[in-house]
Amino acid sequence: MNLRRDYRSTRAALFDGIEEGGIQASSYSSHEIDEHENDRTIEGLQGRVNILKSLTGDIHEEVESHNRMLDRMGNDMDASRGILSGTMDRFKMIFETKSSRRMATLVASFVALFLLVYYLTK
Length: 122
Fold this sequence. Notes:
Elements (H helix, E strand, L loop, with lengths): L1 H13 L3 E2 L2 E2 H73 L1 H24 L1
Helix pairs in contact: 2-3
């Protein structure tokens, strides 16, 4: 019996790594394979993060460019509004005086004639 126990303990020591699904050593290599897959996945994710980072940088530059363009357009609109209000003030002043009404009708007729000629030639 003692011999049998020694045989079982020796056998158990030899095949200690065997489990129902396979050898425990293969479990270690499976763990190693999982680590390599994780490393590859992490590298892929780092690549995607770098792409997203450059994309957001490009979007930021584009937004800044559009903001500058909108600021310039707003300033131009303010300048145009100032010019237009000055022109409207001059028209009001012209129509308030009777002698200037003749001049205004003359200018309006020239503008109408110009538009008519422009329309006919086009």
